[in-house]
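A favour, since you know our structure tokens better than I do. It will help me judge whether the discrete encoding reads sensibly. The space below this message is yours for that.
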Amino acid sequence: MSTENTLEHKIDKADLEGKQEYTITVYAENRIGLLNRIAIIFSKRKINIESINSSASEIEGIHRFNIVITESYEVVRKLSRQIEKQIEVLKVYFNTNEEIIWQELALYKVSTDEIAEKVTVERLLRQYGASAVVIRKDYTVFAVTGHREETDALVKALEPYELIEFVRSARVAIIKDSAGFHEKLKEFEAFEPGEELVENEFLDKGEKIFTM
């Protein structure tokens, strides 16, 4: 199976003019050491990974990795080809932000007293669609899902109101035009069918065959 045929991306003029944010989606068997080998591919080329996420996919036994980097189209294409050379990797896609639907989860720990005493804080949290995850006497933890610009904006807005702690998850993304990897897997199986299981006719005649 040719790697050239498995890398999928829509090329447009904007892609070739300079660096932009890409999400690389990798479908692979979840084997020990794979994530480390993928990270080495980036580190050897001195490319910074801005976000990386690993999770189960829609296919049992197959994991999905979302890797976010800012690079040129040609660099991302070569990286994706290199990743696909790993034995466990079944498929690699790379897409611009316009070609995917993506979200990140952010958690904010804020002083409960600040929320109770200042209406401004409560309004800010409502404005950004924050939901309370934990409420304690000393602090409250809120969760927000959205794009990085939105979660960053809330960090800045909460800084004057005793923002105790902030953490953000890696990106999760779905490709807009994808029909799902299971459809692609069917194509692979049709193109390269596995060998049929052949029953050993001597399997239950061990004593007769191997007795001296």
